[in-house]
Amino acid sequence: MWSMDSNGTHVVDGPQAGSPGAGGDPDVEGVPRTLNYGQHQLSYEVYGSGDRVLVWLHALLFDTNLSHGLARRLAARGNRVVLLDLLGHGRSDKPRQAGPHRLDLYAEQVLCLLDELGADQVVLGGVSLGTNVSLLTAVQAPERVRGLVLEMPVLERAAPAAALTFVPLLLQAQYARPVMRLISKVAARVPRTGLGALDSFLGAAASDPEEIAAVLNGILLGPAAPTIEQRRTIAAPALVLGHGIDLIHSFKDAEQLTRQLPDARLIRTRTFAELWVHPARLTAEISEFLDRTWAAGGGPRQPVAKPRRVRLIQ
Q1: Which stretch of DSSP H or E encloses residue 151?
Q2: Homologous superfamily of the 2-163+222-313 domain (CATH)
Q3: CA angle at residue 114 from 9 to 241, to 5 degrees?
Q4: Residue 118 neighbours by CB distance under 10 Å
Q5: How far apart are CA 45 and CA 34, in angstroms?
Q6: Domain map of the chain by residue range?
């Protein structure tokens, strides 16, 4: 586990209360576990077992509930799937200052998790925010990333639509807090359904407006994604999933990302919710990608020559 010494440097601590090493049962699938990240605690869940680790990250303001179904399906295919709640999300701590919510610090939280798991290399993946954090992590620590599964990247073409969506939400969370608090109280009273994506949405709606404002301010402080030049240096194989339905998750961004990454393949999803509503096709694609990635050698990879045309599977 990580904490900070007097100089602000991350160091590894011993087990803490609530973690498997402190008395929790590591064999119980999906039970929330905790780890220290500086002065904060992060929550994560583990599905399956073994050395083939996939760390999967949620979308902005959502949480691990979003991906319970995917985690169970991929665990049944021989993978150990770890779902992490980033700071400000789900069961993890929710600091009300913007600083801890920079995306490059979210990437640091992923590396903290890898140290907690004792995993030298993992496949990273996620949706929307989770995709961008996975890319930043691959730039920060390329030797830790065996592969990438990137659904709905939010890159240059999405910037105007993202601003039109998130700036009004930020203004509401900042200046219309009584109304937002009323909405959060109502959402908190709604019974959870057992449907992961819906429960994740309800959890987001139940968030305190100060917490929402901190997260949204934080993602505006730091880099939202690696630069184009940095993306071209990411040697890990990547599977990119994109759709053409909303402007925040532009299919053009998915296409451009596939061209920029040295070893990437693009799949066009039928809807933005295909992985949650009709998951069979995409689950099979992700599972096959994981099989190929883990079957390949695990040594350092060099960027490969990138063809101009994108290989698109629909």
Answers
A1: strand 145-151
A2: Alpha/Beta hydrolase fold, catalytic domain (3.40.50.1820)
A3: 120
A4: 7
A5: 9
A6: 2-163+222-313
In 5-66, DSSP assigns E strands to 10-12, 33-37, 40-47, 53-57
- d(CA 121, CA 115) in angstroms, rounded, equals 10
Strand pairing class (53-57; 33-37): unpaired
Residues of the chain with pLDDT under 70: 1-27, 298-314
The 3-state secondary structure of 184-225, one letter per residue: HHHHHHCCCCCCHHHHHHHHHHCCCHHHHHHHHHHHHHCCCC
Global pTM reads 0.84
Integer Rg of the chain from CA: 19
Nearest to 106 by CA among 142, 136, 82, 146: 136
What is the structure's pLDDT at 312? 54
pLDDT confidence of residue 15: 38
Any idea how long the chain is?
A: 314
